[in-house]
Design a protein that fits this description.
Elements: E1 6-11, H1 22-29, E2 34-40, H2 49-52, E3 62-63, H3 66-72, E4 79-82, H4 93-104, E5 108-111, H5 121-130, E6 134-136, E7 160-165, H6 172-185, E8 190-194, H7 197-202, E9 206-207, H8 215-233, E10 237-241, H9 253-261, E11 265-270, H10 288-298, E12 303-308, H11 315-329, E13 333-334, H12 336-339, H13 342-351, H14 353-359
Parallel strand pairs: 1-2, 1-4, 2-3, 4-5, 5-6, 7-10, 7-11, 8-9, 8-10, 11-12, 12-13
Helix pairs in contact: 4-5, 8-9, 13-14
């Protein structure tokens, strides 16, 4: 019997559906750990969370504030999740008060920020007084439990595929989660290694939030997570969630993922309508061509497929864009939210013969478009 999920409210004031609301959006779309019962965003109060993300109704209401949510929900949720992912390191004073209020209502706190609530005296004292827990997803393991690169990744004998991107918050995790589930639905034992706070909140059993680690341990922790998944699960394939972009001047995460996972293939995610890097309005987006060249120059691997985000694009605009990318790059291209994962599964089947034998047992036409929008 599957363990009972905890119920959770996700705080995402004035950011739900926007770039800094990606943690909330991910949890609303899919979570193996929490049953999301509502989102807090006064700008979208009264709407359905699924529809607010541009998809089908998912019956997760959006409330103006915590008071309104508790007045309408049948019971107090188990958890209050801070669902924003801002570039700023610390939350403002007004949001601190909301966290304290949630504790007073009896809710555990789940935090994905670099600011660790469990190191905050005011928060810890309130948690003790209210009998609730604080969990900082990005808090790294103790130094004694961290790993440097050991060169053991070569013993992994199943395909390792990294889902990288051309920018931050462009859909890498969404594609990784969708592909992982599509493979599982086909009877393939696929394991997703999470590398960020949202995928870990969603239920990834292996991985660590690598942007919170001391740089010396990033590559080793990626390798160790993949080795753990390989040894413990005997999987058919391991997918590795990407972070940022190899070309991004502000972040190093993708380099660590490439070096630590030594992937047998890469799927590259790109938002074709985005002109500038998110949170960096003066930095122009790289081209898909330049990102592919950079990835393949750094690692002994090949980009095997392209996935697109329909950010700021109507669904009807995606098909001609997909066709244009396929003609230009001669790589299978799709948008997993609107077109599903069939092309990606076909690409994996073509590149990895052992996977092809297992995929053959299930017709690819049965792969659904996942209800993640």
């Amino acid at each position: 019997m599957a363990p009972l999920k905890k119920t959770a409210l996700v705080y995402c004031e004035k950011q739900f559906g926007l770039i800094d609301g990606k943690t909330a959006a991910g949890l609303v779309r899919r979570s193996e750990t929490y049953t999301i019962v509502g989102v807090l965003d006064s700008a979208l109060a009264g709407k359905d969370a699924g529809e607010a993300l541009g998809g089908a109704k998912n019956h997760i209401p959006i409330f103006a504030n915590l008071e309104a949510a508790l007045a309408q929900l049948p019971t107090v949720p188990d958890c209050y999740i801070y669902g924003k992912a801002p570039l700023d390191a610390c939350i403002p004073a007004t949001e601190r008060l909301l966290v304290l209020e949630a504790m007073q209502k009896g809710m555990d706190i789940l935090n994905g920020l670099h600011e660790f609530f469990s190191d905050d005296r005011e928060f810890t004292q309130m948690a003790t007084r209210c009998g609730v827990q604080i969990k900082d997803i990005r808090k790294p393991p103790h130094l004694k439990d961290l790993h440097v690169f050991a060169g053991q990744i070569g013993k992994v004998t199943v395909p390792v595929v990294a889902i990288l991107g051309t920018d931050c918050a462009c859909g890498k995790r969404t594609t990784a989660v969708a592909l992982n589930q599509a493979l599982i639905d086909l009877g393939i034992k696929s394991i997703l290694v999470g590398t960020g706070q949202t995928s870990l909140m969603q239920g990834a059993r292996y991985g660590v939030a690598i942007d919170a680690l001391i740089s010396q341990f990033v590559i080793g922790e990626i390798e160790h997570s993949i080795l753990q998944a390989f040894d413990n699960e005997s999987p058919d394939i391991i997918l590795v969630e990407g972070q940022s972009a190899v070309s991004h001047p502000a972040f190093m995460s993708s380099l660590g993922i490439l070096k630590g996972s030594r992937p047998d293939g890469v799927i590259l995610q790109h938002p074709p309508a985005r002109k500038f890097r998110c949170d960096f309005p003066h930095l122009a987006m790289p081209t898909v061509e330049s990102e592919i060249k950079l990835i393949e120059a750094i690692a002994q691997t090949r980009v095997m497929a392209i996935t697109l985000s329909h950010e700021n694009l109507a669904d009807k605009a995606m098909l001609p864009i997909i066709e244009a990318y396929e003609q230009q790059f001669h790589l299978p291209t799709t948008d997993v939210l609107s077109q599903g994962c069939q092309k990606l599964v076909q690409a994996l089947s073509k590149q990895f013969p052992t996977l092809k034998q297992k995929i053959k047992r299930s017709p690819l036409e049965t792969i659904p478009v996942l209800a993640m929008r």
